[in-house]
Amino acid sequence: MSRRVLLILGAYLLLKVSASAQTYGNQLDLYFGSWQAAPARTVNGLSERDVLTRGDTLHPTSNGAVLRSASAYEYATLAPHAETSRTRLGGQQQIYFIVSGEGRAIAGGQTLALSPNIAILVPSGLEFRLVNDATEPLAMYIIQEQTPSGFHANTSILAKDENSLPFSTADLQWSYLVKKIFVPSDGLATLTEVSTVYLDPLTVSRPQSTESADTDAVWTALKGTGLAFVSNRLLRQPPGTAFMEIPDGKTPHSIINPNEDTQLKFLYFAHKPANPANTYRPN
User: What is the chain's Cα-based Rg?
Assistant: First the structure.
């Protein structure tokens, strides 16, 4: 299938299901955020930049201010031969996904090696620090979630190697190849899934809207530049750019990989209700 045919097919499918969808116009840009456009700040020895921030999910007032279930979402780097200060999270926990560099996470007698595609879940109340022994920066995405009253956090850091996880597919989405990294049974507090998602060259995902108004789902491009169809617009999504699905149960979204030889890769996290009351079905 040629790139032109793929784009025409994708546009036809999305515009077909967009006929009755709410059009957000220029407000669609508010659901996108990129760490490259954010100012850097130093926190506990890390250089951090916001990807998305907390805000009104249905009526954001600034670019990327859309988070609801996650309390923060950042891109961070730890300089060569540096380490963070000892940190203890209170009322929240964090998921770190390493994208480049090598280092260590140290907590409670554990020392865990960090390298690309390693994810760690750091629970509330556990003192920890990160160390970079290498000559290159240690780069990562950090997802933060609040821990509700009565939540029983893990007592140690949990690490997963995305490279060793199996792929799963979902026919409903047509082309997604998914590696589930963390789910509630792993110790997530508010989120219900943290995964990586791949899209092969010249493929398109099935257009769909959020499962309910309580669904939060964020897609961050890690590898390759794809095309995000949202409502009736087409937007480029290069690496470092995140998009939050509009949770109105009406506005469809889809991802197209127009590249002939490059696989797309995304970091995906979501909160989905156990029994969605408003489920969208494409025509």
Answer: 19
